[in-house]
Amino acid sequence: MNMHETNSLVNERNLVIRLINGDEKAFCELYAVYKDRLFYFALKFVKSPEFAEDIFQDVFTSIWQTRRFIDPDASFSSYLYTIVKNRVLNQLRDQTKEQQIKDKILSQAIDYTDNTTDHILSNDLKELIKHAVEQLTPKQRKIFEMSREGLMSHQEIADTLNISVNTVQQHISSSLKTIRSFLKKYSDYADLLLLLICLNT
After folding, report:
1. CATH topology for 3-92?
2. CA–CA separation, 181 vs 195, rounded Å?
């Protein structure tokens, strides 16, 4: 290790110690140092600038919130890349799981035409959907309805509410889990309701 690398590591360790002690300037310096390299690292896997940016922002939000638990003697760079890698894996896992759910429902060969939709959405089923959505928190319900009824994309919702796309995805994912749990009580209708709900999220 040459002198420049040694000095760089010493400087970074000092920044990390200051970060641990709540120094916002040190946090901003570390943020600037790692932004591009972590963004492009995430981008290689998620293939979406918006998702990569959300992952990076989420990681540094977590770094600030959990700064007191950071080990100043461990490699901060390795620590960051490990967190980013885990966020990337979670993102890819959620995307795969969501697609599998949609594929499974569609594979049941329901003729999803406007006429079929009108037939399925009887008053009883509308009522079930209404009760299922009522199980959500106000924030979840707002985002879920913007997606399902407003037919807004995750990016459009994020822009409207001034939140990240990742936050929108988390709210919708949590909403679907809550709704699925509620619909388990109505197994006769569950697949049809999930079809109507999931295709619009």
Report:
1. Rna Polymerase Sigma Factor; Chain: A (1.10.1740)
2. 15
Determine the longest span between alpha carbons in the chain, in angstroms: 74
Q: How confident is the model at residue 109 (pLDDT cuts 50, 70, 90)?
A: very low
Q: How far apart are CA 195 and CA 153, in angstroms?
A: 18
Here the tokens at position 72 are 């100043």
Listing DSSP states for 108-127 in one string gives: T-----HHHHHHH--HHHHH
Residues in the chain: 201
Q: Is 91 helix (H, G, I), strand (E, B) or coil?
A: helix
Q: Residue 169: which of 195, 142, 143, 139 has the closest Cα?
A: 143
CATH fold of 108-198: Arc Repressor Mutant, subunit A (1.10.10)
pLDDT reading at 6 higher than 60? no
- Provide the pLDDT for residue 125: 61
Environment class of 187 (CB within 10 Å of its CB; exposed 0-12, middle 13-18, buried 19+): exposed
* pLDDT tens track for 127-171: 677 777 888 888 888 888 887 777 777 788 888 888 888 888 888
Question: What does R_g of the chain's alpha carbons equal in angstroms?
Answer: 22
Q: Which one-letter DSSP state was computed for residue 132?
A: H
Residue 73 per-residue DSSP state: T
